[in-house]
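#struct-pred
JK: can someone run the complex with pyridoxal-5'-phosphate? inputs below
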Amino acid sequence: MIYLDNAATTKLKKKALDAMLPCFDLNFANPSAIYPAAGKARRVVEESREVFAEGLGCDRDEIFFTSGGTESDNWAIRGAAEALSRKGRHIVTQKTEHHAVLNTLESLKRLGFEVTFLDVGENGILDPAAVEMALRRDTVLVSVMAANNETGVLQKIGEIGKIAKKNGTVFHTDAVQAFGHMKLDVKALNIDLLSASSHKIGGPKGVGLLYKSIDTDILPMIFGGGQERGMRSGTENVPGIAGFAAAFKDIDDADKVRELRDYFTGRILSEIPKVSLNGDRELRLPGIVNVSIEGVKGESVLMRLSSLGICASTGSACTSGTGEPSHVLKAMGFDDERCNSSLRFSLCGENTKEEIDSVTEALKDIVGDFRKILS
Ligand code: PLP
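RT: done, structure tokens with the ligand placed:
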């Protein structure tokens, strides 16, 4: 199998597995208990928190563990909106967000919030000036992702953070795809809330985090025994948290991934006629290549690739299979034909040049076959 779908999920890293295993037997205690074994479990959680605090440049009291990116997005947005609703009920976001953000905002609209969904350019980038223009006196939250899951396009979150701060508006970023793949210094970037997920960086599924700056008030969304300093109840997923931190410490070499991606992109664009790269060529994650291949259906190409043991995707894991054109490519102004002929390949540090060569050759054959049938 050649796996080029790392934006959907990643293989668990060996170091993450090694960190997790003792938490299932030797170190299985509930971190909230008072005996020494519980202290050991608690230490695992707190040492992991320290790893993320250091990585994000924040205090460890600003890190809260969750069940993943979706929960972190829901919590950040609903928690901030509810906490600030007396100040205002307007939220600014953009159209290419993940559905964990878009659908949470839709749910807030039903509760009387007003949401501005900003357009992006053809390169997938949101102009920070558009955010500035959209801000109002009653705007309480700006939510703009760090990197897009379909195209890998990076948003100018530093500039957007500055604008939000100047306006006294809370700034949330969904960094699920960017986290670990680029430096994210939350203080320098003026980020108040940041969502991240473990299974996109070689950690286990079902665990993530929310960074919440000490100055940002949000309401808890999950009530119970008062874990995570009363902000997110539920017995901690100790093995998951340990695996997440171990994966973060063993992050892939971004330069190596970028080099492979550029080699792949170069080969596809030069050797297959009528292929367009979707998303900005420079401002994007090291691992994602999204292309549209004129005249062929992305789904059909994927099925042929899949029969050869090659795993890729047409867009986000959540929307692929629905037959709906990607909302991300649509927002970039592309017609249905370009959206439906798109393919996403997402690489990781384990991929090799040989794999990329095999996939390129397979792709050339498949596209050639389809075009012959259609001509
Ligand atoms: N946000 C983005 C940008 C994502 O790519 C994903 C997952 O695909 C999520 C949120 C949801 O994360 P999780 O799968 O951890 O719930």
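RT: quick notes.
The mean pLDDT is 96.
The two ends are 32 Å apart (CA to CA).
JK: thanks, will look after standup
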